[in-house]
Amino acid sequence: MAVNLFRLGDGVHADPATLKTSGVASQYISQGEHQHWWEFLTGIVPNSFFDPFVEGNILQVIFLAVTFGIAIKMVGKTGEPITVAVGRLTEVVFKVLSFIMKAAPLGAFGAMSYAIGKFGLSTLTSLGSLIVLFYVTSALFVVVVLGGVLALYVRLNIFQLFRYFKEEFWLILGTSTAEPALPGLMHKLQFMGVGVPGAGQLLR
């Protein structure tokens, strides 16, 4: 609604038909033009357990994860050692990610510096209005819609939640992705009682 109202892209005058693609991009475009919906659904099922991890197919990885999780849940006590092992492995992986993601803002800064140095400051300023519109619209949705739902049904103040997650918000803002903040968010949510059986109410 916001984009259709303000129409920030009207001044770009870009014709997608004139764009030339090559390499992997053209391969994906050609595959998408000739792929049927049922081929997309059957393509979610991998040929083997390791294929999705080797090829980097995210949908197949998610399919395996969900199927594996359901199977562990259904076998009951037999799957408890696997659940414990996966939980411990997850802790280690998240700790490694926390080390790497401390340098993520520096990587984003380096990418922006390269783009400005090679193509000029206009590469960033041309997208400034779109970014501002995105953040303003997102903030209004989170505060008004999500904040209203939390206040009515969960009795949770959205601004208290913002203060609690402020470090993660700054990390997301600096890297333009939520992945670096995921380990910290999960630890803080667990500390609040989310997902812990018998836990008390959330923030007051």
Automatic annotation (TrEMBL):
Keywords linked to the UniProt accession: Membrane, Transmembrane, Transmembrane helix, Transport
Natural source organism: Streptomyces cynarae
Segments passing through the bilayer: 58-75, 96-116, 128-154
Membrane topology: Multi-pass membrane protein
Domain of life from the UniProt record: Bacteria
Subcellular location(s) per record: Membrane
Residue ranges the record marks as coiled coil: none
Protein's name according to its UniProt entry: Cation:dicarboxylase symporter family transporter
